[in-house]
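agent> step 3/5: call structure_predict on target 'Peptide methionine sulfoxide reductase MsrA' (Nonlabens ulvanivorans).
agent> reason: downstream docking stage needs a structural representation; sequence fetched in step 2, passing through unchanged.
tool.input:
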Amino acid sequence: MKLISTIILIFIASTCNTPVEKKAKQKEILPVEVNAQDGLERAYFASGCFWCVEEIYESVQGVQEAISGYSGGNTENPTYRNHADHAEANEIIYDPETVSFKTLVDVYFASQNIEQVNGQGPDIGESYRSIVFYQNNEQKKIIEDKITALTNEGYKVAAEVKAFQKFWIAEEYHQDYAKLHPNQGYIQGVSIPRWRKFASKMPEVIKSSVRH
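tool.output (status=ok):
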């Protein structure tokens, strides 16, 4: 009798666990790795307003360009007026011989309020949430090691860590916005102070030609 009961329990346990295991496997999302072009690689970050982030990264040695756009969601063809589940994000085009992905991650956390959930500064909502994207296991480990270090320092890190899938370029008028509109109210009141705060933390990575 005990033997039959044991067999039944084992069967029930295995039956219950199987769908959960399958469900877990189905949820796993593999990252998309973007190939280097002309020796330049690409990294992706979301950290509040993309105008601010673009300006920050374009001031970093080894970064050729930062492009504003949308990432982190599933909506096709997002726009500024309707990017739904995407966050404002930036594509960072950089020379790995000059600046490493690890340094870009350091820049990311040095240039934001690490603990702010769903926003940065005055920009509030899921569209402004912080996300660090990885394209392979090496990048994922770099990000996770940085978050572990920050956690050990006492920070409650708000940034999500996500497998990169796709980056959608934002409308043309968003590109180089801070550079083209240096006297605009938001740029003067938010972007420039945010950049200066970052620059004071990592002056060694700033291009000599950049001044504010």
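agent> step 4/5: record observation. The chain has one domain: 41-192.
agent> proceeding.
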